[in-house]
Design brief:
Layout (H helix, E strand, L loop, with lengths): L1 E8 L3 H8 L7 E5 L15 E2 L8 H11 L6 H21 L13 E2 L9 E2 L5 H15 L3 E4 L1 E9 L2 E9 L5 E11 L20 H8 L4 E2 L4 E8 L9 H4 L3 E3 L7 H4 L9 H13 L8 E4 L5 H7 L1 H11 L8 E10 L2 E3 L11 E3 L4 E2 L11 H23 L8 H15 L4 E2 H15 L6 H17 L3 E2 L9 H25 L17 H4 L1 E8 L2 E8 L9
Parallel strand pairs: 1-2, 1-9, 2-6, 9-16, 15-17, 18-19
Antiparallel strand pairs: 3-5, 4-5, 7-8, 8-9, 10-15, 10-20, 11-14, 12-13, 13-14, 20-21
Helix pairs in contact: 1-4, 1-11, 2-3, 3-11, 5-15, 13-14, 13-15, 14-15
Bound molecules: flavin-adenine dinucleotide.
The site of flavin-adenine dinucleotide has 45 residues, from helix 1, strand 2, helix 4, strand 7 and helix 5.
Amino acid sequence: MIYHDIVIVGAGLAGMRAAVSTPAHLNVAVLSKVHPVRSHSVAAQGGINAAIGEHDSWEAHAFDTTKGGVFLGDQDAIIAMCREAPDDILALERMGVIFSRDEHGRIAQRPFGGAGFPRTCYAADRTGHAILHAMYEQLLKRAVTVYEEWYVTALIVEDGVCRGVIAWDILHGGLHAIAAKAVILATGGSSRVFLTSTNAVINTGDGMALAYRAGVALKDMEFVQFHPSTLKHTGILITEGARGEGGYLLNTLGERFMKRYAPEQMELATRSTVSLAIAREIAEGRGVDGCVLLDLRHLGRARILERLPQIRQLAIDFAGVDPIESPIPVRPGAHYQMGGVSTNLWTETEIPGLFAAGECACVSIHGANRLGGNSLLETVVFGRRAGQRAAEYAEAVTFRQPSQALLRDEQQRIDQLMKRTYGEHVWKIRDELGAMMNQHLGIFRSRESLQAAQAQLQRLKHRATRLVLQDKGRIFNTNLIQALELEFLLDVAETIIAGALAREESRGAHYREDFPKRDDERWLRHTLAIRTESGPLLRYAPVTITKFPPT
Ligand SMILES: Cc1cc2nc3c(=O)[nH]c(=O)nc-3n(C[C@H](O)[C@H](O)[C@H](O)COP(=O)(O)OP(=O)(O)OC[C@H]3O[C@@H](n4cnc5c(N)ncnc54)[C@H](O)[C@@H]3O)c2cc1C
């Protein structure tokens, strides 16, 4: 059996930041289903928040984050993140991240939605790319073992303690047990549960489902963020930085309609407010072919080329529109999972030895709505915290070899999939699931639509017990990986639907047409979804309120 002191599942920013912050004498490994720099973090465009401006403060950052999340975020976690952010940004800089500069040579910052101050640091509109590549260099320097193109199928939990993972070697084929004293989940988001999404196709919520199956609660899963501006047809992200630089949103009448929804913040209101406004404009017939228009022309060629080169190219390549000359057709699309694996401030889950950080986790920073630029920040602050705490844990406990029982079970699950000669195709169920989630779990939700989603999901789950693979080989069998991902997607979808149906109020990204008001009396609390044979069991937990009373 392979052994490491710490195994990190995921090589995005959270996973690599965790690995880099472990001491060198520990034997640490990172597993990733794709090459590390293909992780979705590479696609982040707009930037990363930290109160490093002379007139800014971590208190102001914490307040904006709490208010933006409609008071559902845990304030102790928010305060820890905002307080530590400036040091983490400087640490990134010292690692070699090439942040854009202002005229004085300091790290430049741009305004982002819901923030009372321009506090988003950036590297043009390729911030994720710049940070992820610098972090990969650090990973190589730290000489961490990397299992590239390995897919984790299950967590080994024995006597209530996490003792490793089971993983499939995608390139060579074959299942392995990897024993460890500590496991960190850093598997990223789940927005591919929707058909149209800004997310990479690999963002299938694996880590959330792995933890859920092992008995850990998933927190606040009903809160899925819809980004206001995704490109017509493809759903490719057009960064909020475009509005941060001064872009306007227009309807078919040529009106800057945000003045009717958020007269003060206009295009830089929180994402849930802007997405809801765009969806209303489209629903009430003031859209342009199912979209609204994002107009950057007044910014001028030079500024667009300097600050927004990537989104200009994306608009040209994928919508045939050059933003220097014409407005870009955009509409809201699934973007970010605010919920995830329930952890405490130090990324510990309820299972000793199991930690989670980054988008797959819910320390509870973002509450009901994440502010742009806070997710990259969460990955570096809590990735670092996960590495530090898992290291302390691994040094304190003695190793116990796990049994081979789970390896045999997982082998059987894969054999069954490989052997079946007649059944349902993976892609078909995945497409139907995505379309169903688009239709019923989008920006507008109601009891009726959520009940329809629940019934449809049961049928899809039933059909997914009879998946058939077209590829029966062992080498690079992506059909097999997609089948395993589909099972995880179905788990994640089920928790989103259950949470959304139960939550009879509107808050942040969760908008119920039948309960359009926020209801603090009944719903200022976290949803916890626990797995049972008959579906998710919902429990509720209080929100930690320390500094900012809900208003
Ligand atoms: C287009 C886009 C733009 C964005 N822009 C911004 C922005 O400007 N600012 C901001 O703050 N946030 C932004 N976000 C959000 C932010 O980028 C993500 O939330 C964050 O990067 C997630 O990082 P992560 O490390 O948690 O996961 P990821 O970077 O998604 O990495 C997940 C890792 O887990 C691995 N993995 C997953 N499942 C398995 C498995 N079963 N076995 C093995 N490995 C597995 C993957 O291979 C990958 O290495 C953006 C998101 C998108 C989609």
